[in-house]
C-alpha cells in the first residue's frame, strides 16, 4: 500500500496553515459553468452519505486539532493521538488545542443531537459527520466511539489524497450497519506475540472493525495415539496467584501487563476485547492441570461435569482473570462437548453464565444447542450466541429461541491456516466483496438485512494444525486477503460499489494505519507513478533554522525547503516506510546546492550503498538520477562538498519505484491448479490475485516481455505455497534458457528480491525444482526490472 495509513482511533485532523492557502481554488472552468462538485473521497470502509462542494482544504503545520472547552479527557486524548498519527503518516506537525476553532483548524466535538442521517438508534453512538467548509473542518460525533470513527475517516481522506495533506470540501454522514464488526484469533493452539496482537488491534481500528475476540485456551483436536497426555494444549494467561502456578503455557503467555497493553491499545483504537476462556470441551489445559477433573480419569479434553469441583474450578478461573478484562463481555466457549452428557452440560451453562454475570460481565457462547438438546429451551436466556455452524445451532433457530446472534459461520468465515478444509489459504476477498454481508448464511439460513437480533459478524482463525510449521506473519498474509472486504461489508454494505479492483486501489491508498509496521503489507504495490518519499519521515544531520526542517523536503510543496548548517558532509535521509524496489530519484536544489554528493540507499538504515556519485555540479537544478533497480527502505543524500558558502538546501527529494517490465505481459505456465488461478494473475499488478500450479514439483511460470529487454532484477511474492528450491531463467527465443539466479533452501513464503548481472531477455521463467509445502507453487506477483 502507499502510506501506512493512519491511526484510527478516531482522530480528527487538522487543516491548513493559514499562511498557506486555505482553499485551493478549482481549475478554471468554462465561462458561466459551475465548478464540479467533489466526489466522495475513497476511504475504507466507504462512507454512507456524501454531499460534495468545490475546492479543497490543505493541511499545514500551523493547523490545530481543537476540542471545545469542557470536553472530556478522552476527547482531548483523541486530539493528541490525531496529532501523532498525522506526523507518522504524512509528516505534518499539527498541534492539539482547546477552545474555539479558527480557519485552518479541525474542530472535534461530541453532540448527540446532531443530524446523523438514517442511523439505527442502537448504533448512534458510533455515528459521526464531517463538514469541510469555510477553510476548516468539523468532526461531530454522537459519542466517543463516533469521534474515533470520524477522525479515522478524516485521516484516511488526507492520507489517500494526491498530496497526502488535503481534503475535499463537502459533508459526510456516516454510521455502521451492524454493532459487532469482529475477528476471532485462536491463540490457545498457537501463541501470537503481544506485538502482533497490539498491531492487529490498531489495524482493525483503522478499518472500523470494533471487536477482537481472543480464544485463550485450547488443544489439538486428536491426541497422538489417543493419549491426551501427549497432546499439545495451552492456557495463555499467567497469574501470580500460587493457586494457578503451573496452569499457564510454557511456550508463550500473556501477563497482566501484556493484557493491560492490549486494553490500552484497544481503547485508543475504538476496539473492544472479548476474552474467551473455553470449557467444558476444548479444556485439555485444565484437565492437564487438574487431571482429577477430567473425564476418563483425566485422559480427555473434557471436564467431568458430574463432579461439582469441575464447575467450582472454572468459577475460580473466571474469578481470577475477569478483573483483567475491561470490556463488557466474556466468552465462555461451551462448544463441541459430548452430547451423551447433555444434562450435566445444561446445568453447567446455567451455572457458569449467571456466575460470570455476577462478576459484572455479559456472556457469549458458541452456538451448540441444536446438536446438544434440539434447541435452546431450558438454557440461560441471557446469552449472545456465535452461530458458527447451521447444524450445531443455526441463526434462525437461535433467534426463534430468543437469542441475539453473531455470524461466525464456519463454511463461510473460518480460516484454518494451511489446512485442506475450511479456508486453508484464507478467505476469498472478492467473493466477500461481491456476495457476502453479515446477514448471509449458507443454505436456507440467510436472514433479513439488519435483522434486529443479528448483532453483526465475526470471522475466525483457528490454528487446528498445532504441529505445522508456520508463523504469525504468514497467518497475517492469509487474513489480509479478505479483511478490507469484510470491514467494508460489515460497516456500509455495498456503498463501495461493485468494482473490486477500484476497491483494492482504495485499500492500497489508505494503507494499514499507524503503529502497524510489524505487519507485512502484502496488498501493497510498488507504484512507479507516485513519489514514494512524499509525506514520509525525514531526518537530517542538521537544520539551519527551525522553519527549514527536514520534513519540508518531502512535503510535496514547491516553496518549502530544508537547509543544513554551513559545513560540508551534511546529509538528508528519508524512510520509505518499508523496503521498496526503486530506480529513480530527483533532488530539487535551492540556491545552496551541492557541488559533490552521493545518493545512498539502505534496507536497515545502518549499512549504506552508493547508487550514484554526483560530482562537479555547477548550479542549482532539479537533478534527476536513474540507477539500477535496487531494494531500499532508506534513501540518503550524503553531501561531500557544498557549491556555495551556505549549507545544503533542498526544496524536495522525489523517489520513484522501478518500472515493472513484466506488468500486463502475456504469461504461460506448466499448469494451473484451478481455472481461476491462471498465469496472467501473477503479472496483473494486483496484490490480491495469484497463479497456482498443480501439486507437483518441477512446475514453471513464464512471461513474454514482447521484445528483448535488459533485465537485472526480479521480485517474486509467494503465496503460502512457496518454492523451497527454484531457478530464475531467461531466454531470447523461448527455447534456450540461461539461469541467472539459483534459489535454494527457502523455508517460508514471502518476497524474494533478486539481483543479477544485467542481461538481455525476452522471456523470463520461474522454474520450480522443489516445493516448500504439500501444495504446488503459487505466486502473487513476479516483477522484473
Summarize the structure.
It contains 15 helices and 34 strands. The strands form 5 sheets. The protein has an 8-stranded mixed beta sheet with strand order 1-2-8-6-7-5-3-4, covered by helices on one side.
Please report the number of helical segments.
15
Beta percentage is: 25-35%
Structural class by sheet pairing and helices: alpha/beta
pLDDT below 50 for ≥5 consecutive residues: which ranges? Answer: 1-32
The tally of beta strands, per DSSP, is 34
Spatial strand order of the main sheet: 1-2-8-6-7-5-3-4
The global form is: globular
Mean pLDDT: 91
Helix content: 10-25%
Amino- and carboxy-terminal Cα gap: 20 Å
Biggest β-sheet strands, sense, barrel:
8 strands, mixed
Radius of gyration: 28 Å
Describe this structure in words.
This protein has 785 residues and is an alpha/beta fold. Helix content is 20%, strand content 30%. The protein contains 15 helices and 34 strands. It has an 8-stranded mixed sheet, with helices on one face. An 8-stranded parallel beta barrel has the order 9-10-13-14-15-16-17-19. Helix 1 packs parallel to helix 2 (144-160). The longest helix has 18 residues, at 73-90.
